[in-house]
Amino acid sequence: MKNLTLRQLRIFVSAARLSSFARAAVEMHLTAPAISMQMRDLEEDLGISLFAKQGRGISLTSAGEYFLVYARRVLASLREAEDMMGKLKGMKTGILLIGLVSTAKYVLPHLLAGFRQEHPGIQINIQVRNREQLVELLRNGEIDIAIMGKPPRDLDVRAEPFADHPHAFIAAPNHPLVGKGSLRIDQLDSEEILIREPGSGTRAVMEHFFETHRFRPLSTMEMSTNETVKQAVMAQLGVSLVSLFTVRLELEHSALALLPIDDTPIMRSWHLVTRGSRPTSFAAEAFRYFILEQGSILLASLVPKHGIYSDKLARKVKTLPQRRESGEEKPTRARKKNQ
Q1: If you average pLDDT over residues 101-105, what whole number do you get?
Q2: CATH number given to 166-267
Q3: Which of 30, 67, 181, 320 could form a disulfide with 34 if both were Cys (CB 3.0 to 4.6 A apart)?
């Protein structure tokens, strides 16, 4: 492995995760031929095949699976070393790797706008995945922080709620049930229920609600993105349960309507999740403090409070109290005092 490079390791990990040289090329800002050449050179250096063709994509060989474990360890160790050197030098810069469930992409820009004003020197990289994929990124040390609804239970993490996250049922504005007042869940018996893919946090919320109310939809249609669900509902293909953050603009412009099903809106929490067993960089700690102190205030203004849920949301959406763990020092203020 005398010719092995860090660039090859990063490309290998990206290609392995995406099961595609073409998608890895997009992520790494390279061409597909360049990715193929780097991986061919890596395999020649190791003297063993790491990838096998699988339809239009690729899969890892047994050797590739083993090598992936070590590649991730090497890259994670280098990132930890870089973070520690930055702390020792008192740097206010660094790279922050944020992972988020697809629903959170509707709220993260509003959080980042304020954060970047306080920390302009921090470079931010964002990866959007479904919940299961996000947990894997945390497990493998490929992100510093995850923003999600339900934290993983089978992983050593620090999960901190920072804002309320309401979910409700939506339909096309001209749907027969719109404007009928309070509805029972069994009134959706004859409706096509649009659901997210397995591994989605929104799907988990929906399934738990159905199980709690002993409701089993007669017909469902599975979709992989929030945008597809919204467009399908607007096209009158069915109804769905969504995060209210994802439909704020559509509700304001009457492109979608809420169905006031009993026991909705369903209130969950946004969580800030970090690995409990790994040291965090200055960038990650600065972002964590910012979100815990200001996240709920920033997001409260984004929840649609008009229409049928005005009173309920006014009562339920609360600003979570500021958090400061004893013995911890807020990076921003601490460093300002020393200047």
Answers
A1: 90
A2: 3.40.190.10
A3: 30
